[in-house]
Write a structure and sequence with these properties.
GO terms for molecular function: ceramide 1-phosphate binding; ceramide 1-phosphate transfer activity. This protein has about 200 residues and is mostly helical. Helices cover about 65% and strands about 0% of the residues. The protein has one domain: Glycolipid transfer protein, GLTP (Orthogonal Bundle). The protein is built from eight helices and no strands. The two termini are about 30 Å apart.
């Protein structure tokens, strides 16, 4: 984030790193990672076509070219739709990470602390309202393959200690939320907040 804008080269590198990390979580993360990679490709194509390096310049360039319709109806594929879904993906994982960090501070009684349950709550809070039938079904299938946090931690080598992992999760979530807020502000300012459902 640079002030109220986002450097697209850094966003794309961070997005690639994010995909590499999340893909290690297991098969359940594959649809999410594939979606983010597809969105990063849309951003890359638009960025190159417009010859820009910032998110604001990309969005303004697409608007000036008449790519999008009033009321947040975005052309797909476009950089704007790619950025919108990258943001939603970031917020989904921020929500998951925040829940696990809270669990690690004081274990919940009566359940609610599994990665599967956290993912479902994050989905319902962040993404569900934008998913059509096909996307919702794909999420349910992926959710059924969700491993435990212990298995994810073992696969990925997350945190040398519980305290370190909790701090990492809190830091990642806070960074994701800051970035997502800057991105949301730009989308809303330019009437690019597409609220339609996917397929």
């Amino acid at each position: 984030v640079v002030g109220s804008d986002v450097d697209l080269d850094r966003l794309q590198q961070a997005g690639a790193d994010y995909c590499d990390l999340i893909s290690q979580f297991g098969r359940f993360a594959k649809p999410s990672v594939a979606n983010v990679r597809e969105c990063l490709q849309k951003i890359s194509v638009s960025k190159k076509g417009l010859g820009v390096s910032s998110m604001l310049a990309l969005l303004e360039g697409e608007c000036a070219a008449g790519a999008h319709k009033p009321g947040g109806v975005l052309l797909d594929p476009s950089g704007a739709i790619g950025l919108l879904w990258v943001r939603r993906g970031l917020l989904f994982w921020a929500h998951v990470f925040e829940q696990q960090a809270k669990v690690m501070m004081r274990p919940m009684r009566g359940g609610g602390s599994s990665l599967k349950e956290q993912s479902l709550r994050a989905y319902e809070a962040v993404v569900k309202q934008f998913h059509g039938w096909v996307s919702a079904r794909a999420f349910k299938v992926a959710l059924g393959m969700t491993p435990s946090w212990d298995l994810v931690r073992e696969r990925v080598g997350l945190g040398d200690s519980d305290d370190q992992l909790r701090d990492d999760l809190q830091g990642w979530a806070a960074s994701m939320r800051r970035l997502a807020e800057v991105m949301r502000t730009m989308h809303e300012k330019l009437d690019l907040e597409d609220k339609r459902k996917s397929i």
